[in-house]
Amino acid sequence: xxxxQIAGLSALTIFGSLSAVNAQSATTDPVGYTTVTCLANSxxxxxxxxxxxxxxxxxxxxxSATADGTKAEFTMSGVSGLxxxxxxxxxxxxxxxxxxxxxxxxxxxNGADSVKIxxxxxxxxxxxxxxxxxxxxxWTLGSLFPVGNDTIEESTGNLAFQRKSSIxxxxxxxxxxxxxxxxxxxxxxxxxxxxxxxxxxxxxVILWPDTYFIIRHSSLVQSATTYTAxxxxxxxxxxxxxxxxxxxxxxxxxxxxxRPIDVKLNELNLFESGSFTPSTGNLxxxxxxxxxxxxxxVQAQRKAPSKIYFHNGTNWVDNGNVTGNADEAIIxxxxxxxxxxxxxxxxxxxxxxxxxxx
Length: 358
Prior knowledge:
This is TIGR02597 family protein. InterPro entries: CHP02597. The chain contains 1 helix and 26 strands. With 358 residues, it is mainly β. Among the domains are: 57-137, Elongation Factor Tu (Ef-tu), domain 3, CATH 2.40.30; 239-354, no CATH class. Strands 5-6-9-8-7-10 form a 6-stranded antiparallel barrel. The protein starts with 5 loop residues before the first strand and ends with a strand.
């Protein structure tokens, strides 16, 4: 198990590959940062492996949840006096105990002592009195990359030849594999806007904690920039990441690991949790689930994966070296990956329970 370096009482200081191992006890959740180099005229696939603890709340469910179509509403124990909808839309509930432990749900409304969440297909009956949870604020384009930041070069206008840096969000809703981005945004001196609607203010576009995004520098960007992610380290024992499947072919899931350290494949708990179907052999027609990794050190847009891994039921295997053992291959901090799920009989969503190695 890796140890995390603590500076002072509550700051997690992360350098380079995050291999520092000195540790001291801390009484609050540690905070820290990671850095990734974003090459010029290239795509960099990244995530935010930290929590945004702005206005966060820790509480528990009081009484039974009430169903309202696709939503559920419940009372928060020990919380009162909230302004109506002050946590709506830009905040989410993450359960820290109970049946839904580790799951994330966007808040649609809140009252003085209650919240209503979008269930994403789950049942309100899965929420029971006493279940603990935390409320966190989503990272947004504007909060992560405000005007004048050092990562995203501001475009000089709306036309294609005036665009410098863009953020591309992956498509996690369409069936199949190798999807085009769901949306593209770029930053001007006046703020973020949508590639398909340049009059739209996109500063509050949310970045989900279990997926990645792409920083694309166009050919107008002359030199590399640095993406620095900062925030609170997630120390909770369980994060649940949904993985979609379908009945008539493979399904790509564009995900990230919410941990600010490098992680070995055999530390992912992906196969061990039953979330990753092992292959029956090394040949292409025997492959089942696959894990695709991208190299941010390669200068290119629309990159092909640099590595594809599968599991043979005993250990991880590199597609390019099927006789080797890839258990200790590294997924870098802040890196996005694709989990390509093999078809299933029922097309059900499978939840990957990821636990920290620190």
